[in-house]
Amino acid sequence: MVTPLSSAAVADGPSPAAAGALVEFRGLRRAFGPTVALDGLDLTARPGELLALLGPSGCGKTTALRVLAGFEHPDAGEVLVDGEDITRVPANRRDAGMVFQSYSLFPHLSARDNVAFGLRVRKVSAAERRERAAELLDLVGLPEHGDRFPHQMSGGQQQRVALARALALRPRVLLLDEPLSALDAKVRLSLREEIRRLQLSLGITTVFVTHDQEEALSMADRVAVLNAGRVEQCAPPSELYERPATAFVAEFVGTMNRLSGTLSGPGLVRVAGAELPVDGDAPATGGTGAVDVLIRPENITAEADPEGTATVVAASFFGSVTRILLDLPDGTTVKADVPSRDAGGLGPGVRARVAPAHRPVLVVAPAASGQAA
User: Fold this and answer.
1) pLDDT, average across residues 41-51
2) What is the β-pairing status of strands 257-265 and 230-235?
3) How would you write 284-341 as a 3-class SS string?
4) Which residues contact 8 (CB under 8 A, 6 or more apart)?
5) pTM of the model
6) If we measure between CA atoms, which residue out of 139, 149, 151, 219 comes closest to residue 179?
7) Measured on CA atoms in the order 305, 306, 307, 309, is the torsion positive or negative?
């Protein structure tokens, strides 16, 4: 069972000594033999914001976090916190709190002693350690768990203790390395909401690494999508989803249909029988006009129609919407999100009429599949 964070504790609990630090990655490069993990990474976490680093495995997001923490040293570039170059500062002097995926609690120490461990290392008095640990356990919703050992707590409770420990030294920056991925779905959902509320209340600059798009989009002020050691786009979640800057971002974040189209005029493209405005610049096509058009499932309509040219392959119920999978005459498969109340007649084998919504679309060269536009 996950105990909600105390509203009073969040309001009155201990605040970091220097909340709202400005974090800057400048031209970071890090290679492991022939593998380039960071390739000139430039990125800024604004004071007090939660910045999520999102991307596929091997994109460099964890390496960037480890460089910020001081566990990795870049081959080139700088890391600055509030204008101070900390690139060569040892990890234990960086004034950053880190929460790991695996909790990393000391199994022989109680929750209270785990939280107070860093304070003991810094030779804080026993009385002050006890007081600070009690405040922090209350802050994360575990005021009665101080005497429990890690094996006596659930995964969600252990991660809360790890969060309290990271905040014990009042760090300028909080680093979260996929802290929720080891938890079950219900606990993960609850804890991510509580972490976000706590982060907002404390105003601490937080860099959060995750491979879970839903986590990134629901928690972060801005999301940086990384690919091959570089930032493809860094923007608020709604902008990232609605106005992706590249084909990579468009297809990595959320679900995207890629349909064949033809440029039909300045700023126009014809796709699936409709003429739509182009969002941004159209790629060079060598005179053929052939492009790929990227359209979200919610911007595709599907209606049962005996004269329709598409065929329903499958329907998946997702509560308020049902995702319809359809085969088009050219062999392309398209996904359409239809209000569930209207999806009753769209069963497998049904003929259907498919049309894109009239709104700007991102177009890319057909040969650019999966790559940046």
Assistant:
1) 96
2) unpaired
3) CCCCCCEEEEEECHHHEEEEECCCCCEEEEEEEECCCEEEEEEECCCCCEEEEEEEHH
4) none
5) 0.85
6) 219
7) positive
